[in-house]
Write a structure and sequence with these properties.
0% strand; mainly alpha
Length: 135
């Protein structure tokens, strides 16, 4: 193996190791964000369930008029009636978006690791893998 090839190989190994370190460091942050995102999603689902206690927006309005619910709760119930199931998807929390971003980043790093590992394989092994993927 030439000196240039050895340097390239060592550089790829360093890239692989570096990406693995990054993934390991952000895994916990990803897990925490995911738990928060799921909790926020569950809260929205609960709001929809609690809104279903009322048969209509008018009934919720009457409850607000009799001080059974707050104005904020009434407005939330009204939005839920207007938007229906879309309410779950339209009121996404920052944690949910952050989870998606971080998940995509981890996926991209994992893809790069696999790509570098593939490049480090002997040419015969690379060709064998390519043939397997085609069939």
């Amino acid at each position: 193996m030439t000196d240039k090839k050895m340097k390239e190989r060592n550089a790829m190994i360093l890239e692989i190791q570096s990406r693995k370190v990054v993934i390991e460091k952000i895994k916990n942050a990803y897990k925490r964000l995911k738990r928060q995102a799921e909790a926020n999603y569950d809260k929205r689902k609960l709001k929809i369930q609690s809104a279903s206690e009322y048969k209509s927006v008018d009934e919720a309005h009457d409850a607000w008029g009799y001080d059974c619910i707050t104005e904020k709760q009434y407005n939330e119930i009204r939005k839920i009636f207007e938007q229906g199931e879309e309410y779950l998807e339209k009121h996404v929390s920052p944690q949910e978006v952050a989870t998606k971003i971080l998940g995509e980043f981890i996926g991209r790093l994992s893809y790069e690791i696999r790509s570098f590992e593939f490049e480090l394989l002997p040419p015969e092994e690379q060709e064998r893998i390519r043939k397997l993927k085609k069939s």
